[in-house]
């Protein structure tokens, strides 16, 4: 579930913040009551005194700032509640000459802001209309997105127990005329056009597509001495090029689909290309603070709003989270001091309209991270430079979301990554520490098949505004680092490739329902094709037809949305119950496959418990997640050649690649990887960890 943030037009969004409910939440940092243990304020686990970070979630134990080691030598420690909050207190008392320099804002941005200030009344009116449309009189909130509850089962738990699985897609009530016609309609479509027909018009543009994405990195100059770790051979996974099915799909797709003229026309040339930028990394590395600070520097958060965040954060004893609160909106997120759902915000750089996707770093919310970051064109991997915290992210006490997120991001097909080495203030902007992190993490990124040339390394401090939108002013940093600041690094990314010539495909990330007016809107990234108001779309897996009523990009109404755009689309003529996250909007004649059993080519990650026939897993494919069971392990693949090295092995262990079959408890919208990459990447999770990444090689059974 994504939360879209709009500071420009909706200043009073925080008025809905329910202080009363916050008061009822449990206090943080409770004493454990058990001698020899300390209590994690994030996940509430009782940890042994000897552990520096939480055994369950990896959060670094609160320390009291700078620690001295045995030799009396000064080492750097992190303190979330003491040191950082001191810094935050001083942060808001900056004298004018210490105030951050004005951000580098593009002409386009300035022009647009100027236009906006003129048109603000008009846009506000539009927004108010929308707000009204999506506001029930019985509800205080403008949109009907229930935040994930911390005390409820994690997304993983829910999927494992099958409560929130894709099979919960519209179960059409018996006896309903509309419903039965929907079912019939859907079946007819599926029968007429075997779902396999939905293929990639450019034939997955060549045999190159028969490789998993990361193969493209194989020419990269690897970091020397890169360890042979799990991800090393992901690129060797290849699809069967001779697959008859694949050939026929590609052929039929070309014959069947021709884009309309308006799709190819460049009507909205004034708009710079949209870049979906996922901000990922280990819990507490400073992702939300970085996003909040960036938005503030770029004028996307008003002074009034910032002042409000600062005041409220201080009142709640969380002064250091004032910038993070710009992204963390819910009472629970603020009380816990962690992000739980992906927050979406926008800003303009010189080159791009950037869509920031601020992901949760806590391991319990990796499924939410997957759902949001799967839309990414590029990523900012935020690491905490302080001693112990960086190490925890790399897998200190067995959990390390720096690694897990990097691995996942690469598996989403993201090739360009900016590593933001944050909290450099806590290590006194030490070059040695930065170089150490670059070396350690660089080896891992290389093993994930990120090209060295596609990884940018930026030392910065979000809290002290060093190196974000201008070069560093602190001489401790500027004395040895003269490279790009973060904003320039973002502008140096290559614009993502877009394909409007293929049939429409919009995986649904979020659904916003207005029960009051019975209207439904979906949010997500257009993977292929284009949309405009009045376009007819097929909503899968329900198989219902709907009409596009309005489209919004960056909270502004637009007439056409094209591949790559992150949009909100309101639909007409469909029952809200028939639209679900994990579904897909597609071309009326070209429905995506709805599958209940799949063949996957996977790469097993660093797991402890082997994968067996019968293993229960959660499968994540774009925004869909479903409980599943491994029904067959067909073959083990040789790490080097990718050829079958053994048939029907009994178990799969860490770092092996294999072909397996899975039976889903329900159904998901999916495509074979050779047909559509975005719908053909799969992630297997179990016991709260990602255990394998892979691609869909065959749809074995189609569901209905
Ligand atoms: P999750 O979303 O829960 O994974 O956390 P996050 O990565 O978004 O971290 P968040 O922005 O919530 O910040 C965590 C803590 O780190 C807060 O107390 C911030 O004030 C602090 N912090 C963030 N950036 C910096 C920095 O540059 N320097 C210092 N000293 N503290 C920072
Ligand atoms: Mg956060």
TrEMBL record:
GO terms for cellular component: cytoplasm. Gene3D superfamilies: P-loop containing nucleotide triphosphate hydrolases, Translation factors. Its main location: cytoplasm. It is found in: Cytoplasm. PROSITE patterns: G_TR_2, ZF_RANBP2_1, ZF_RANBP2_2. Residues 34-63 form the RanBP2-type domain. Keywords: Cytoplasm, GTP-binding, Metal-binding, Nucleotide-binding, Zinc, Zinc-finger. Transmembrane segments: none annotated. The keyword GTP-binding applies. The keyword Translocase does not apply. Residues 208-224, 232-248 have a biased composition (Basic and acidic residues). This protein promotes the GTP-dependent binding of aminoacyl-tRNA to the A-site of ribosomes during protein biosynthesis. This is HBS1-like protein isoform X5. It comes from Phoenix dactylifera (Date palm). The lineage of its organism: Eukaryota, Viridiplantae, Streptophyta, Embryophyta, Tracheophyta.
């Amino acid at each position: 579930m994504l939360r879209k943030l709009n500071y420009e037009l909706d200043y009073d969004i925080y008025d809905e913040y329910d202080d009363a409910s916050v008061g009822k939440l449990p206090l943080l940092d409770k004493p454990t009551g058990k001698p020899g243990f300390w209590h994690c304020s994030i996940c509430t686990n009782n940890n042994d005194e000897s552990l520096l970070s939480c055994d369950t979630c990896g959060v670094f134990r609160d320390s009291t700032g700078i620690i001295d080691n045995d030799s009396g030598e000064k080492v750097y420690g992190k303190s979330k509640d003491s040191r950082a909050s001191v810094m935050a207190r001083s942060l808001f008392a900056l004298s004018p000459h210490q105030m951050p320099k004005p951000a580098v804002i593009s002409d386009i941005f300035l022009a647009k802001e100027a236009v906006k200030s003129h048109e603000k009344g008009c846009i506000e009116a539009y927004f108010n209309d929308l707000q009204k449309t999506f506001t029930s009189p019985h509800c205080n909130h403008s949109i009907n997105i229930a935040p994930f509850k911390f005390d409820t089962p994690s997304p993983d738990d829910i999927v494992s127990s099958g409560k929130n699985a894709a099979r919960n897609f519209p179960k059409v009530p018996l006896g309903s005329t509309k419903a039965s016609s929907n079912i019939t309609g859907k079946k007819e479509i599926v029968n007429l056009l075997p779902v396999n027909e939905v293929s990639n018009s450019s034939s997955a543009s060549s045999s190159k597509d028969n490789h998993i994405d990361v193969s493209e990195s194989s020419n990269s100059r690897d970091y020397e001495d890169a360890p042979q770790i799990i991800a090393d051979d992901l690129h060797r996974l290849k699809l069967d090029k001779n697959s008859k099915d694949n050939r026929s799909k590609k052929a039929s797709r070309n014959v069947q689909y021709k884009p309309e003229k308006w799709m190819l026309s460049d009507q909205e040339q004034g708009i710079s290309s949209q870049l979906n930028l996922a901000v990922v990394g280990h819990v507490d590395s400073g992702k939300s603070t970085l996003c909040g600070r960036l938005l503030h520097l770029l004028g996307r958060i008003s002074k009034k709003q910032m002042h409000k965040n600062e005041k409220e954060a201080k009142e709640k004893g969380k002064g250091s989270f004032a910038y993070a609160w710009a992204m963390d909106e819910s009472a629970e997120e603020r009380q816990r001091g962690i992000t739980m759902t992906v927050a979406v915000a926008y800003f303009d750089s010189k080159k791009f309209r950037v869509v920031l996707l601020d992901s949760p770093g806590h391991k319990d919310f990796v499924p939410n991270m997957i759902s949001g970051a799967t839309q990414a064109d590029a990523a900012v991997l935020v690491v905490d430079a302080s001693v112990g915290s960086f190490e925890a992210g790399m897998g200190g006490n067995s959990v390390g979301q720096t690694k897990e997120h990097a691995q996942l991001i690469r598996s989403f097909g993201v090739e360009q990554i900016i590593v933001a080495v944050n909290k450099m203030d806590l290590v006194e902007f030490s070059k040695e520490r930065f170089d150490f992190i670059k070396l350690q993490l660089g080896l891992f990124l290389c093993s994930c098949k990120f090209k060295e040339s596609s990884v940018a390394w930026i030392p910065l401090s979000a809290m002290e505004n060093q190196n974000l939108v201008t070069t560093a002013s602190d001489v401790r940093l500027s004395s040895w680092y003269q490279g790009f600041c973060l904003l320039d690094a973002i502008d140096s990314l290559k614009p993502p490739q877009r394909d409007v010539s293929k049939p429409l495909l919009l995986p649904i990330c979020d659904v916003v329902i207005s029960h009051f007016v019975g209207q439904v809107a979906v949010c997500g990234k257009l993977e292929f094709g284009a949309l405009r108001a009045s376009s007819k779309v097929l909503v899968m897996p329900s198989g219902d037809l709907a009409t596009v009523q309005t489209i919004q990009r960056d909270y502004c109404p637009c007439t056409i949305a094209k591949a790559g755009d992150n949009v909100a689309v309101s639909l007409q003529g469909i029952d809200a119950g028939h639209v679900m996250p994990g579904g897909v909007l597609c071309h009326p004649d070209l429905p995506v496959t709805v599958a209940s059993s799949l063949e996957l080519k996977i790469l097993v990650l660093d797991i402890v418990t082997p994968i067996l026939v019968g293993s229960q897993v959660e499968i994540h494919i774009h925004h869909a997640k479903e409980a599943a069971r491994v029904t067959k392990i067909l073959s083990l693949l040789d790490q080097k050649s990718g050829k079958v090295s053994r048939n029907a092995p009994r178990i799969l262990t860490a770092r092996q690649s294999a072909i397996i079959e899975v039976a889903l408890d329900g159904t998901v919208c999916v495509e074979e990887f050779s047909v559509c990459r975005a719908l053909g990447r799969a992630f297997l999770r179990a016991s709260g960890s990602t255990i394998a990444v892979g691609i869909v090689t065959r749809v074995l059974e189609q569901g209905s």
